[in-house]
Fold each of these.
Amino acid sequence: MSDELEPKRTSRDLDEIQKRLSRWLQGEVADTGASITDLRRPSGSGMSSETLLFTAYLRNDGVREEQQLVARLAPTSEDIPVFPAYDLDLQFQTMKLVGEKTTIPVPRVLWLETDSETLGVPFFVMEQVDGRVPPDIPPYVFGGWLLDASLENRQEVEKQSVHIISELANIDLSTINSEFLEIRFPGETHLRRHFAAQQEYYSWVVGDTRDHPVIENAFTWLEENWPEESSTVLSWGDARIGNIMFGNESFTPVAVFDWEMAGLAPVEVDLGWLVFLHSFFQDIAETYEFPGLPDFMKAETVKEIFEQETGYAPKNLRWFMVYAGLRHAIIMSRINDRSVHFGQAVWTEDVDDAIPHRDLLLSMME
C-alpha cells in the first residue's frame, strides 16, 4: 500500500523527534556521544499508538556499539487517539512479567519515560527483533508469505499462536503482584469489569454525536446470553497473529508485541479475539472476491489446540467471538473519527458504514 493510501496515524515530525530522542538518550545512558539514526515508522502496523524504529550508537565498556531499537509512543490528543488512556507502565510491566514467567519471546524492554517533556508524550524503548509479521495493511489474506505458506506451516502458525495464550493462562496469578493488571471498573467478576470498561469506552467514542445500532444490539445480545465464566488469567488483550513476529525462515514466533490491552479476564477473551480477528480479515477478502484463508484459525481448531495444550476445553467461544466483534466495532468507529480528522474519510448517514464487519457481527448473533 502506498503512503498516500495508508491511514495516517500522527502529525508528528520525524526529524524533530530524532533530535529530541537523541538528546534524551545521551542523558539516559550518561554518554554525550550517544546518537540515533535511521528513525522511521514501520508500514502495515496498527494505529492505536506510534511505533518508531531506529539505530542507536552507545558506548559499552569503552567501545561504541550499534543497537537496533524500537520506541513506543503514546498518541497525542491532537491526533484523535484510539483509546481514552495509554498506560505505558502497564505495557512495560506486562512485558517484563511475561518475559520472566514464560518462554514467550517478548522484546527486552530497556527504558520507560513517563515524563512528556522529551517528546510531548510518554514512551518506552525496547530492543528491536528481526522477523516477519502478518500485516494488517494490506491484510495478510490478500497475499504474502502466510498466504503462500504450505498447509503444514499455516497449521504451525495456528499452534504457536494458541501456545502463547496457553502460556499466559498457565501463569499462577497467586505468585505475582497482579494489581497493575486490574481493570478498575465496577463488576463482581473480572469479565463483568472487562465488559463495563467496554461500555464506558463506547460512550467515550460516540459521545453525544451518534449511536451505532449494530454495537448497541451486540451489547444487548451479550447481556442476554451471558456465559458461564472460567477462571481468571493474564489476558494479552490484543491476541492476534498481527502482533506476533515470526522468524524470517521459520514459522516460530520470535517476538510478541502490543500489550496495551492487557488485563485480567477469562482465557476465552483472548481465544475469541484470536479467532474473530482472522474472521474479520477473511470476511474482507471474500467481499473483494479473494480466496483468503477460509480454513485458517477456525474456532474448533483453536479450541482443540488449547485443550491439547492445557487440558481445559474453552467454553462459549461463540459469545466471546461476538464480544470481540463488539470491541472491534467500537475501535473501528474511533478509527473512522481519526480518518475524518486527517481528511481521509467522511461520516455517512448510516454511521454503521464505518464498521466494515457489521454484517459479520450481525450474523454471529443470529
Amino acid sequence: MEKYNVVIIGTGAGLNIVNTVLSRRLSCAIIEDTKVGGTCLTRGCIPSKVLVYPADVIREAQHAERVGLQLKLEKFDWDMIGKRMWSQIDENKRMERSLSKSPRLSFYKGTGEFVKDYQMRVKLKDGSYSETFEGEKFLIATGARSFIPPIKGIENIEYITNENFFGDKFPKKPWKSLIILGGGVIAVEFAHIFSAFGTDVTIIEMLPRLVYTEEPEVSAFLERNLNKYMKVLVNKKAIEAHAKKGVKIVKIEDMKTGEKSEVEAEEILVATGRRSNADLLKVEKTGVKTDKKGWIITNEYLETAKKNIWCIGDANGKYQFRHKANYESEIVENNMFAEGDNRLKVDYSSVPWAIFTYPQIGHVGITEAEAIEKGYKIYVAKKNYSSVAKGFAMGLNKGDIDDGFVKLVVDQSRTLLGAHIIGPHAAVLVQPFVYLMNAGYVCNISPTPESEPIPTYSQTCPEAGSFMPIYRSQVIHPSLNEVAGWAIGSLRSVNIEHEHDHEHNHDH
C-alpha cells in the first residue's frame, strides 16, 4: 500500500501548503475532483469579477448624468468579456501540468473517499477506483457546492448554478430574462451583472431581506437600489418549477400571507446557499465529526475530531471566502509541523468581506445587533457619502436613494467591533478598519539589565483595536476616506448609560 506523509484533498487553499511539505522532503498526495485552483479561481470570485467590472462601468456611465455627463453605451462585446473570463479560469490547466510533474507529489483526479482510519481511495473520472493509500497527516480543503432547495419539479428542468455557469452553461449572450433564487452574495452579484447587460432580472428570496449577514439598514439600502434595475421579491418562497414552451416558470408562495403567484423567465439561477462536501468524502469512516448541517467540525487549531486531520476553507462552514481559507492555510501550515506549544490559534474576530453588487458592500467584524447580543456596551456611528466634498463631487446629495454610508460599531472601551459600508469603493474603504482591528497600539518593553540593549520584542497593549489612531490621523481631503475617518465624530450611545447624562441633556 502506498504511504504518504501528507494527503491534501482539494486544490484551492490546500495548494498553499504544498511547498512547505515538499521543502521538508516529504511525500505528498493531492486529490482534486474538478478543475485545479478551487472555487475562487475556476467557478467563483475571480471569474465573476471579470464580469462585475464591466457591469460597474455601465452603471457608472448611467450615474454620470448626475454630474453633467451624457454617456451612451453603444454596444458591448460579450465574446471578448467571456474570453477574458476564461483566460483566468484556464489557469487551472497550467497549474495541473505543474502538479503532475512535481517530484514526491502524486496527483489524483477524482473524489477522495476515506476507507478507514488514515486510509483513502479515489473515485476516478471513469467511475473506477484507485488503489487504497495511507496518509500520516490529512488536510481537508474540499470546499462546498451549491445547495439545491427542495422545490417541486426543479430536478426535471435545467437550471444554472455557479458551478455550471462557469462551465458548459455560460451563455453565448446575456439572457433576455433571469430568475435568481436566493438573496445572498452570489445572488446579488449575478443580479448586478446581468441587469447591467440588459437582462430582465427577478430575485426571489424567502427571508425578509437580502444579504442577511449585513446590517438591516445595509440590506434595506441595497434592496431600494436594486429595485431601480430589477424586481426584488423578499418573503417569497419558491415552491415549484417547470418549463413550458421555452420558458421556465417558478411558482412562489408569500411567507406571510401564503398567497401564491408565478414568475417566468428564460433561465433560472439557483443561488440559495452552499452545502458541505463532507458526505462525498465519507469522513465518518475515519472519525471526523460534522455538525447537523454537514460542515466539518474543527477546533481553534483547525484540527478535526481525528488527530492529524485538519480542515480549512469552505469545508468547515465558517466564513466562506478565499482570503479566510488562505489565512487558515497559514495556521495549518504551522500547526501540522509544530512542536510543543508552538501551535497557532485561529481568530475570526476580524474576518472582512466585500459583496460586489451595485452598490458595493464592505464588511468586517460584528453588527450592532450581534454586539448587543454578545453583551457589549456600544456606540454606533454613521456617516453618509454626501456629507463630504468628494461624495458631493461624485453626484451624491443628501436624501438621494444611492447616498451610501459608513456605519461603525464601537465598544465603550473605544475598541472597534465592526465596520459596515455600502456605496462606491466600499471594499477599499473597509480595509483600513481590518488593519486597525488587527493592530492596535504597540508598547515597547523597557530593557532590563539582563536583556539586550535594544528590545527585540513588543506586546500588544490593552488598547488594541481602538479607533484612536484614526481619531488622531489626518485624512486626505477631498477623498472618500473622509466618509470612513469622519464617521468617528458621529458616535452615539446605543446601550451605554452615562453618569449625569440626565442633568446635561446630552449637550456635551
Amino acid sequence: MVDLKSLLDYASSLGAQETELYLEETKGWSCRVYQGEVENLQASQGKGLAVRVIAGKALGIAYTSDISDDGAREAISRAIENAKISAPDELRSFYAPEGEYPTLQAWSQDIEDAPAETKIRMALDMEAMAKGKDSRIQKVLAASVGTNSRSVTVVNSKGVDVSFRSNYATISCQVLARENGVMQPGSGMQFSRTFAGLEPERVVGEAVEKALNLLGGKPVESQDAAVIFAPEVSSVIWQMLAGVLTGEAVQKKRSMFAGKIGQRVASELVSLIDDPFDVRGTGASPFDAEGVPRKRMALIEKGVLKTYIYDCYSAAKDGVKSTGHAYRRISTAVQAAPCNLYLEPGTQSLEEVVASTKNGLLVMDVSGISTGGFNPVSGDFSVGAAGRWISDGRFVGPVREVTIAGNLKDMLMGIDAVASDLKWLGMGTPSFRVAKMAISGK
C-alpha cells in the first residue's frame, strides 16, 4: 500500500502549499434470482486515490485507480499542473484538526463471512416465499441479496490522518400482482448492519402487501383532502428537501430556505436531525470527506430552521466553520451533502394516524418528483401518486392516476401528524400527514 504521508512531502517538494489525499477501497457482492435460477451475479472490488492541492492559492484536483507509489505521484503532479491553470481563491484551505475524533463501530464480520451459497439460497427462498403468499401474485420480478464494504482514509498536510471502515447487507423483493386483467407491482427492501439482522419474510410481506393493497386502483374526484405520506415516499421528499439546506445552495440562490435561519419553516412536529452515529443509516461515519469530525445536529428543530450544512469551502464563503458535511467519491468533486438524516418520529402509530383521518389519501408511491416535479427555489411541486383512500378513519379502496400539487413551504407548515413507524430507506423517516393538499383526479 502506498505511503500517504510520504506523498505529502512529495507534493510539497513540487510546490504545493497544502495537500489532501483521499483513499477509498470498496468491495461489493450481489445476486438476483428469477424463476428459481440466478439471473445476475456480480462481485466487484475497487481502490482509488483522490488528490487535492492548493498551489499559488489555486485548487488543483486529480484522481487515480493506480495506488502504487508511481501512480500516486503521477496524480499529485497532475493536480499541481491543474492548479497552475486554475483561478486563485483566497478562501481555499484544507481542514486543520481540532481536538479528538469521535469513534463509531459500523463493521460486522458476519457480513464478510457469509458464504455466497447462503446468500443465493436466501434470494431463492424469498422468491419461493413470495410466490406462495397469495394466488394473485402472478410473478416475482426479482429477489436480491447484496453485501457492501467500504474503507476511507483521509490525510492532509495540516495534520489530518483518519480512517474508517463500514459494511452492510441489503435484501429486496419485487412482485407483480394480477386480478381481473389489472396488474400492480410492489416492492420491499431492507438495509442491515449485520447479516443475521436481515428479515426476508418481512421484506417479502411488504412487497406482496403493497402490490395487493394497490391492485385495481382508480382515480378519485379532484378535491382538497388530507394526505399521509408513507415512509417510502416520505424519504424521497426529505432527501429532496435536504438538498436545498446546504450553504452552497443558498449561496447560489437555489434554495427556498435562503435567509430563514432562526425562522419557523415547518410545523412544530417537524425535527429533521442529521445523526452520523446512528448505524441504522447508510451514512453513519465519524468524519466527512475532508476529515472534519461529524456531530449530531438538528437542521430543523420543532419547525425552526437551525442551520445550513457546509463543507470547508462553502463554510469559508459564509465566514463559518464546516459542519462536517463534505461528500465525495474518488472521481467526484467535494460538495456539501447530508450525512445520516432522519425525521424524528412521533408517538402515534400509522394505524392511529389513519384512524384519525376523516377524508384523505395514504400515498404509497409517487412519480415525477425527480424529473422536474420539484422547484428548489419556489418550493412548487407536482407529482403523480398512488395509494389507498381513507374515509372516516378506514381504508375504502386503492387509488392511482392522481396528481398531488402544492408548495413545499405550505406542506411543511401543514403537517399535523408524524407517525412512529420510522424506517431507514436512504434516510430515516416515519409516515407523516399534511392536513390539506390539492388532489387532482377525475
